[in-house]
Specification:
The complex is a heterodimer of chains A (about 250) and B (about 290).
Chain A lengths: L4 H5 L3 E10 L2 E11 L4 E5 L6 H9 L4 E8 L2 E2 L5 H6 L2 E4 L10 H8 L5 H14 L1 H5 L10 H14 L4 E5 L7 H16 L3 E5 L11 E6 L2 E7 H6 L1 H8 L11
Parallel strand pairs in A: 3-8, 3-9, 6-7, 7-8
Antiparallel strand pairs in A: 1-2, 1-4, 4-5, 9-10
Helix pairs in contact in A: 4-7
Chain B lengths: L1 H29 L6 H19 L3 H28 L4 H24 L16 E3 L2 E3 L1 H23 L1 H11 L1 H5 L5 H21 L1 H4 L8 H15 L6 H19 L7 H12 L13
Antiparallel strand pairs in B: 1-2
Helix pairs in contact in B: 1-5, 1-8, 1-10, 1-11, 2-3, 2-4, 2-8, 2-10, 3-8, 5-6, 6-8, 10-11, 10-12
Classes of the chains: A alpha/beta (about 250), B mainly alpha (about 290).
Bound molecules: adenosine-5'-triphosphate and magnesium ion.
């Protein structure tokens, strides 16, 4: 992947002062987030912290109350979700596939807005990368196992050739073996220059990340290098499960 | 006698599939029952009648005009109403009120425009010779209506399962958010589906004089009821499941009219109650709820 001078100078995505919620319930409180080109950022946080809400706000699936989002120098706030996706953001939700469509149909929809020939070409490439999917291309995605489904949703998200891959808990519901496989695949994609934002609770994904953000109660509690996170004692206790005393890390 | 009844049931079954198909397509994509469905069918019937009485146009040749006119109406209706509706606080309730109101308004305007008298297109437009099928003879109008219905069902199949737009449409049926975050313009896809749904109703309307009786401004509500019964019997939200519901309904209707003619009008309600008691998810069941 090659970057123009302007792209190298400014971050790929810059969100600032994000405020969002559902009805009267405010979930995000002034959240800032930056992702550089080809950078992988992991978003940690306990259940209900607002990770999913933050990702959805970036994609436009949850309406923003306030704040601004820039992606490759373009403002995103006024755009529909599909327009944001077309700018180069792929989103892998926790569901991630259309259960009523076949594997092949799912994959091709991933490149819905690309020229037909391009879709064909990329589908062939992805079948090489995800050999499991080839033999079962006619099968409904709803009949796949959790792990296969995750692989399909990854392939589908990658189909459009995105600049940034946004993922909501890619490890959810997967056995440790599959989690390893997902991480390995992500490392491969990241190595090819794809930037990532991963909301996770599984710390195995930390090894992919250059930077980590911790969201708590809808506020960013920590943002910095992974190594800084690993060295911070309090954070370490609450997020790495290395508890010296039973109640450590509670507050 | 029984062979005749069954074959007639099949012809009518195909036609009732067409009558209800648009309602199910719209339900699948937008998760709302278009209470004005039957009124759009009525408008399609008046369009065909108008073309016939003013220019002698055979209803078969009126089909392209029906499609163009009602796709445009559907797309315009979608963009005028739905995006605003979805951003309201209680879209389900509001859409229910809105569609009920729309149904009333269409009916009232149709009374003003066309009066309360009944209209018909003579079945002789298809010739006076009956058609024989498997040794039984049927009015040509029935057979033409059934053939047109079968062609429309096939067209819907190709649209949903063999085209890129159709794949996107089925994706929207599964989840609007998931579809949008795949890069699909959900509004565009839904607007086209609503257009297609209304066009299907209108095409069914063009043949209603031969299959449902005379054309009247107040025919809509009854047709909406029958269509609802048909899609609940088949499978709510799965357009092709409509065909199963339509065939069951058509056969049921012909059997009733042959053996219990005075009870035939109750059929949609009886079938609805039966299916809700026995298999509330429709004959095709939950597994194929999504197209
Ligand atoms: N559709 C919704 N309507 C109303 N409130 C919601 C909705 N979705 C989430 N919430 C609330 O918003 C808060 C944040 O939820 P969110 O799903 O963003 O958390 P999360 O960090 O993704 O949690 P998890 O780790 O469990 O996925 C929670 O309090 C939740 O109850
Ligand atoms: Mg979540």
């Amino acid at each position: 992947m090659s970057f123009s001078a302007a792209e190298r100078a400014s971050p790929l995505l810059r969100a600032s002062g994000l405020v969002a919620g559902y009805g009267p319930l405010q979930v995000l409180w002034d959240v800032d987030l930056e992702i550089g080109n080809a950078e992988c950022v992991i978003l940690l946080g306990p259940n209900g912290a607002g990770k999913t809400t933050l990702l959805k706000a970036l994609l436009g699936l949850v309406a923003l109350w306030r704040g601004r989002i820039e992606f490759r120098g373009q403002r995103l706030e006024g755009q529909r979700t599909d327009q944001r996706v077309r700018q180069g953001i792929a989103y892998m939700s926790e569901v991630g596939v259309f259960p009523n469509l076949s594997i092949e149909e799912n994959l091709k929809l991933g490149g819905y807005y690309l020229p037909r020939r391009e879709v064909q070409r990329r589908a062939q490439e992805l079948y090489v990368m995800f050999p499991d999917l080839v033999q079962r291309r006619g099968v409904l995605a709803g009949s796949l196992s959790g792990g296969q489904r995750k692989m399909l949703s990854l392939a589908k998200a990658f189909m459009s050739g995105p600049r940034l891959l946004v993922m909501d808990e890619p490890s959810a519901g997967l056995s440790p073996r599959y989690v390893k496989e997902v991480i390995a695949t992500l490392r491969q994609l990241h190595g090819a220059g794809l930037a990532m934002l991963i909301a996770e609770q599984n710390l195995g994904f930390l090894e992919l990340a250059g930077r980590a953000c911790i969201l708590e109660g809808g506020r960013i509690r920590f943002a910095g290098d992974r190594t800084a996170l690993e060295q911070d004692d309090i954070l370490r206790r609450s997020y790495f499960g290395l508890q010296e005393t039973p109640d450590a890390g509670r507050d | 006698m029984i062979a005749y009844t069954l074959l007639a049931g099949l012809l009518f079954g195909l036609y009732f599939s067409l009558v209800a198909l648009g309602l199910n397509l719209v339900f699948g994509v937008m998760r709302l029952i278009n209470l004005a469905h039957g009124d759009f069918l009525m408008l399609g019937a008046f369009l065909a009648y108008g073309l016939y009485s003013s220019a002698g146009v055979n209803p078969v040749y009126a089909i392209p005009a029906e499609i163009v006119a009602f796709v445009l109406v559907g797309v315009a209706l979608y963009y005028a109403v739905v995006p605003r509706l979805l951003s309201s606080r209680d879209p389900e309730m509001l859409s229910f009120i809105l569609l009920f109101g729309l149904s009333q308004i269409i009916e009232a305007l149709a009374v003003i425009a066309f009066g309360n008298s009944q209209r018909a297109i003579p079945a002789t437009v298809f010739g006076i010779r009956p058609v024989s099928l498997f040794g039984q003879t049927f009015p040509a109008a029935w057979v033409v209506s059934a053939v047109v219905s079968a062609a429309a069902i096939l067209a819907v199949y190709f649209y949903l399962y063999r085209s890129r737009l159709g794949h996107a449409t089925r994706a929207v049926m599964a989840s609007r958010d998931e579809a949008a975050s795949t890069g699909i313009n959900v509004h565009r896809v839904s607007a086209i589906a609503l257009g297609a749904g209304l066009a299907l109703a209108a095409v069914a309307g063009a043949f209603s004089p031969f299959m449902l009786g005379s054309i009247e401004p107040d025919m809509g509500i009854g047709i909406t009821t029958v269509s609802f019964a048909v899609i609940v019997i088949g499978s709510l939200g799965n357009p092709l499941g409509t065909v199963l519901g339509g065939l069951v309904y058509g056969l049921g209707l012909m059997l009733m009219e042959t053996y219990f003619p005075s009870w035939a009008d109750l059929l949609p309600y009886v079938l609805l109650i039966l299916i809700l008691l026995i298999r509330p998810s429709g004959l095709l069941g939950k597994r194929v709820r999504l197209a």
